[in-house]
Amino acid sequence: MNSRRDFLQKIGVSALALHLAPLVGWANNTTNNEKTYDGKVLRVAIMGLGSYGTRVAEAMQSCTKAKLVGVISGTPSKVKAWQSKYGIPEKNCYNYENFDNIKNNPDIDAVYVITPNGLHHDQVIRIAKAGKHAISEKPMSVNAQQGQEMVDACKKAGVKLLVGYRMHFEPKTLEVIRMRQAGEFGKIMFFQGQCGFTIGDPTQWRLNKQLAGGGAIMDIGIYAINGSRYMTGEEPIWVTAQETKTDHEKFKEGVDETIQFQFGFPSGAVASCLSTYNMNNLDRFFLDGGKGFAELQPSTGYGPIQGRTHKGELTQPITTHQTVQMDEMAGIIFENKKPIVPVDGEEAVKDLKIIDAIYLAVKTGKKVDIKLS
Ligand code: NAD
């Protein structure tokens, strides 16, 4: 790695630099980040203290504009452990039965829903009714109709609805988007997204249709769907898709193991993607244009993201995705900041409409038109 000075010169003075402090041992004069930021802090309660909720909570410790202040959980022992680890007061602890009472709690601004996919719809609508901003994990729900109901409920309640699309704030991803917008790849012709891993425990909620809403597409294929949109800068207008299933015991009816899908875009560009719960080493995006290319591999894991273009290696800084995401979301909620790639409910509904279309294409074996607006 370069010297610290070279490194800081490279990244320049930006908000991003603050997030790098814990990673580069640059914490001497920023040990208490709150001292350097005197704006409004987004006070967040996390719902669902599972594996990703734990990762978000850890990452939020390095946030400047967002702070973990509450929890919603069905497991009292986890609540106790989080209270002592993060200094969460008893009055900010809720369970799945009583969390509507959060409406009477002036010390919580937003709830981050990190539960199984099939629960997001009802939970977000309850949060909206309690008058709190909602952040939902991806997929925002299990179909476009549910997603639209969530958007409508949040609009009606006058609260924001955001989705944990952490890649929308990732520096190398944003550099590829910048280069594409600047025309550096020329006319975009092709995108390839390969997303998958081999799933373990057959009893987990990810393999339960009711809780997961489907299979690999819902969980990991969504990265290729969303990525094909932000990498090409276009919305797909048609999809074809083919499913293969090698293990009917583990992947029951309605739970997809492997789906290959292809998109067509208005410009004539095409995409070819693979989503699977039965193969490893698949975390790669490739974008091809008339004048150049970009490859990200790994492209959507927790990092470090790596990549290159026809101009050479991408050298943008490594960040903790969830730290940046939560600080940026505070800006979106309180300052109406507009991210380069949207992370709102409407953006998530587009992905859900595409997922609906992929399942329909698999079922019918036909090319399905996609209408996103
Ligand atoms: P997990 O199984 O580790 O955690 C789920 C949590 O929900 C647990 O604490 C569990 O107790 C709780 N829960 C509440 N009601 C439940 C019920 N009826 N059945 C099962 N669990 C219930 O799962 P996870 O990996 O943390 O995933 C949670 C959400 O976060 C999913 O929507 C997933 O897609 C998303 N996620 C996003 C990312 C990302 O990078 N953005 C990464 C992982 C997971």
UniProtKB/TrEMBL annotation:
Which intervals hold domain GFO/IDH/MocA-like oxidoreductase?
175-293
Q: Which UniProt keywords apply?
A: Oxidoreductase, Signal
- The protein's name is Dehydrogenase
**Signal found in the keyword field:** yes
Residues making up the signal peptide according to the UniProt record? 1-27
Q: Which residues form the Gfo/Idh/MocA-like oxidoreductase N-terminal domain?
A: 42-165
Concerning InterPro entries, the annotation shows: Gfo/Idh/MocA-like_OxRdtase_N, Gfo/Idh/MocA_oxidrdct_glycsds, GFO_IDH_MocA-like_dom, Glc-Fru_OxRdtase_bac, NAD(P)-bd_dom_sf, TAT_signal
The record's annotation in Pfam families points to: GFO_IDH_MocA (PF01408), GFO_IDH_MocA_C3 (PF22725)
Give the top-rank taxon of the lineage listed in the UniProt record for this protein: Bacteria
